[in-house]
Amino acid sequence: MSCQHTVDVGAYLFGSLDLKERAAFERHLGTCEACQAEMLRLAPLPGLLGRLTPEDVEHLDDVPASPPKPNRQRRVALVCAAVLVAFALAGGILFLQPPPAPTWAAKDPGTGVDGEVSMVSKSWGTEMWFKLGDVKPGARCKVIVFDRRGQREVGGWWGSDHAPDERIPGSTSFRVEEIDRLEVSDESGLLVTLRP
User: Fold this and answer.
1) In this prediction, what percent of the chain has a pLDDT beyond 70?
2) How would DSSP label each residue in 107-152?
3) 122: closest CA among 177, 168, 166?
4) What is the pTM of this model?
5) What is the dihedral of CA 79, 80, 81, 86, to 10 degrees?
């Protein structure tokens, strides 16, 4: 598997990306196995290059007459360093994972409808995934999204003839942290209100 962003791994490791590029790459890194593998492969380079002195760079072309004898302590130290780098990188990748999507759930005592929504932050707003139970079949449902300033917009329309475990998509231009509540209704009126 390859990815066009693997060329950005080196720039990321050496701190050459500006803040916006770095944030975009970190979001991408959390979902791309090719870039994660390239990150593991290149992770030791900044540390190794940082240990070079100007004299080392001047003598890069010098080849010793006979190869140096292996040094057991040096090999053990290098193996330990490689293992530590691998653990640090694995921990870093885990911390780069996006936080779990917030999930709101409620059951309306009057209608008996229960609902759940998982929300995912996007650059354009919020992606929503609904699960609804006990909605009468054949209804046309919609969700109205209210933000904390009192603005509202329709976040999606769907028919109620769906499997109980089926996820229903919706979206809004409001960011997750701006959303106050979600009201799911059909032609008969409000079915359930979802809030944090």
Assistant:
1) 77
2) E-TTT--EEEEEEEEETTEEEEEEEEESPPTT-EEEEEEEETTS-E
3) 177
4) 0.51
5) 90
